[in-house]
């Protein structure tokens, strides 16, 4: 059995899942703190994507915790590993896409349009909250990308 | 020596590089066909990112062609493989980020703003060209992502 940084069923693996979940949830909470966000197509997509990320990370974080307690190993079967690899890659790429999309719209709105448009003018407070939400989405992508790389490595090396 | 689909120095590897180069170049040409694109921060970023992608793919496409002709192998040294893996991953993620960013701004512009803003109104012709450019950027990401996965697989398996 492989056992290095980030492997499922280890403390680092669990820590990765927990940070993914925290960043994704934080991103959602900051984003839905204003109704205005729903006027932006990309922000709606970010909320969906972060919801998927949070659910996925919560499930596999719970599985990691279960593994740590019971010492049962579930990633020694190739089929399980393939399932986690595919899921991790889909969530990681979705998170990157949604975070980039939201960041781009935020830049377009604040910089190119000069902070006002037909969609509605954001107050300074929400501009800040949305930017923090996007930053958290990027953090959730980074942690999720690490998990995806580790899982692919395990798949290739077994 | 590993030799499967997409390995550098094989015909499929060369075909991947050529399609990356064609898609990235096509994306740039379509994007710079209108000066208006430079008003959009994300479109400028897409041009930069596609320029990087086209250069990278051209260099390694040329190296693949050279390998095919001379039968010399350059990916049997771990240091070379690590260099290509890192470069491939950076270009692939940049392409995905830039393509998502541009697509998001395009949707924001056309859908959320209803196709007109302080940045300037696009004519129907350019709306179509920009969308085609973004589609080609996504295609270049897909082909570049395949290269990146293949290279990581080679790194993990050797």
TrEMBL record, chains A, B:
Residue intervals passing through the bilayer: 12-33, 45-69, 81-110, 130-156
Keyword Acetylation: no
This protein's record includes keyword Transmembrane helix: yes
Membrane topology reported for the UniProt record: Multi-pass membrane protein
Keywords: Cell membrane, Membrane, Transmembrane, Transmembrane helix
Subcellular location(s) of the protein: Cell membrane
GO cellular component annotations of the record: plasma membrane
Sequence ranges assigned to domain Casparian strip membrane protein in this UniProt record: 7-142
Family affiliation: Belongs to the Casparian strip membrane proteins (CASP) family.
Subunit text: Homodimer and heterodimers.
Entry protein name: CASP-like protein
Source taxonomy: Eukaryota, Viridiplantae, Streptophyta, Embryophyta, Tracheophyta
């Amino acid at each position: 059995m492989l056992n290095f940084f980030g492997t499922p069923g280890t403390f680092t693996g669990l820590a990765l899942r927990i940070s993914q979940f925290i960043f994704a949830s934080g991103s959602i909470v900051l984003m839905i703190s204003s109704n205005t966000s729903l006027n932006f197509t990309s922000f709606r997509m970010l909320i969906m994507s972060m919801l998927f990320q949070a659910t996925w990370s919560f499930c596999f974080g719970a599985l990691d915790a279960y593994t740590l307690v019971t010492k049962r190993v579930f990633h020694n079967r190739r089929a399980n590993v393939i399932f986690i690899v595919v899921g991790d890659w889909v969530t990681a790429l979705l998170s990157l896409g949604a975070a980039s999309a939201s960041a781009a719209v935020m830049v377009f709105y604040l910089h190119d349009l000069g902070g006002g448009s037909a969609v509605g003018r954001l107050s300074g407070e929400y501009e800040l909250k949305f930017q923090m939400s996007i930053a958290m989405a990027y953090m959730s992508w980074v942690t999720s990308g690490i998990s995806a790389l580790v899982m692919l490595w395990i798949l290739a090396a077994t």
